[in-house]
Design brief:
This protein has eight helices and no strands. With 199 residues, the protein is mainly alpha-helical.
Length: 199
């Protein structure tokens, strides 16, 4: 399973590298994809939350390894559609900052909530992230290409989080819980920094 995840991360990254490099020279759907792909990578709040989803999924294990990230992706698409169409969701930035704080705290405290609860909480936060992506879509971008771009980048960040969890796991079962929880604690602190405007 570990080698499969590593292979997927490397393969997907290699496949998308040309699109990232050509972000300023493409037009239409390709340009939309490039803009969408880069959007989650330009904010620490988005990156931390999406990596946290991957670490949390790894920490829970079992079916959560794929159900938690998929829940985030599906709800993020719904939020993105709302953002693209101009629908208003109050307190989006607050929701994004809280996602980093709460997901980081869940990792740090090793909270073992039922899988459906975890998927629901992750899904609610994903709506805020998706809305931000959609609302900030450049007017010249192709909506479908843009959405495929930010979904692809998010999936890679989730895989990155799972990969971080696996790398920590390789440090040894004795130290794994401490290291994973320390990572969650750092995310919570970063989330508080984002919420206060310090980051």
């Amino acid at each position: 399973m570990r080698s499969l995840v590593i292979w997927l991360v490397v393969s997907i990254t290699a496949a998308f590298t040309p699109s990232i490099a050509w972000a300023h020279s493409e037009t239409g759907a390709a340009a939309g994809f490039s803009h969408g792909f880069l959007h989650p990578l330009t904010g620490a709040d988005h990156m931390l939350a999406m990596i946290a989803v991957g670490i949390l999924a790894y920490q829970i294990g079992g079916r959560a390894l794929w159900l938690v990230p998929i829940s985030f992706l599906l709800f993020m698409v719904a939020g993105g559609a709302l953002g693209i169409t101009g629908a208003n969701i109050p307190h989006v930035e607050l929701g994004i900052a809280l996602s980093v704080i709460i997901l980081g705290a869940a990792i740090a405290l090793g909270i073992a909530a039922p899988l459906i609860v975890t998927m629901s909480v992750v899904g609610i936060f994903a709506i805020f992230h998706g809305h931000a992506h959609g609302a900030e879509m450049p007017g010249s971008s192709n909506a479908l290409g843009y959405a495929l771009g930010f979904v692809s980048a998010t999936a890679l960040l989730h895989l990155g989080g799972i990969g971080i969890g696996m790398l920590i796991g390789r440090a040894g079962a004795r130290h794994e819980p401490t290291l994973v929880r320390a990572a969650g604690g750092l995310m919570t602190v970063a989330g508080l920094g984002i919420l206060s405007g310090a980051l």
